[in-house]
Amino acid sequence: MSVTPDDPHPASAPRPEHAGPDNSGPDAAAATDPPVEGQADRQSFDASAQGAPRLAEKEHASRAPGAPARPKRRWWWRIALGLAFVGVGIPALLTLAFRWFEPPFTWLMVERALAGEQIRRTPIPLERMSPHLVRAVIAAEDACFCSHFGFDVEAIQDAIEHNERQAARPPERRRLRGASTISQQTAKNVFLWEDRTWLRKGIETYFTVWIEAFWPKERIMEAYLNNAEWGDGVFGAEQAARVNFSKPAADLTAREAARLAAVLPSPNRWSADNPGPFVRRRAATIVGRMGVVRREGLADCVLARPSAPAQ
Prior knowledge:
It contains twelve helices and two strands; from the N terminus they run ααααβαααααβααα. By secondary structure, the protein is an all-alpha fold. The longest helix is centred in the N-terminal third of the chain and has 26 residues, at about 75-100. The relative contact order is 0.12.
């Protein structure tokens, strides 16, 4: 057979194989058209749906076989917030509230009431208390009240040394000495309970820092004199003056104030209106110290008024 030059596929030459579909028809136009609206979103969703199981498989493979799923650790911050509220929030709220208002009761009052005692208490402002009583309690309990910030370090060291010497004596002859300041006693009387444990002492120290930070010295003294115990069911200077001397606290003399201050360490055993020899001697000592308090201005942080004449 003769081959003409115009034959594009001569018999002796191999014909080219069909490499793919014919892109010259209508289907080619459809393949090159842009995707219909929403089609790209469906394709993206399908891809993410297919990738999610692979991600979960990777996370599962990273854990040890049989290990439980990791719990959501959100409990720790709840515990932290609860501890912060108990340790900081409640003391702050109570301290700020009692900066302006007298507490309606104290834990010692509740304890005495449960024991069957009739509670007698009449809170009054500091201006209605005799300045003799302020000087008397400073002379008897805390001579450095106006100069310390809640704690008398020197008095604490002296008390430790004294109690170490007393430890060598028989128990019935020991006389232990305390070193609590008026600020510490106020923190105990207002916020806490009667107990001789390190726990209560530690909480007392904590509240002492709070009241020294947020209360002026006048308020600390006022709260101390309004909540101190002065006998069976008798709380506060006003009721102490009326029960023992049949007069308001504003009219107390120096000797009467000294007697009230003398029985503060043990108000249920010692009597201010009918004192025994020990209370008389202690009250006389306090009267002498009150003169020192007055001359040296040891109560000036509390007494902004003119000094009352000694009686």
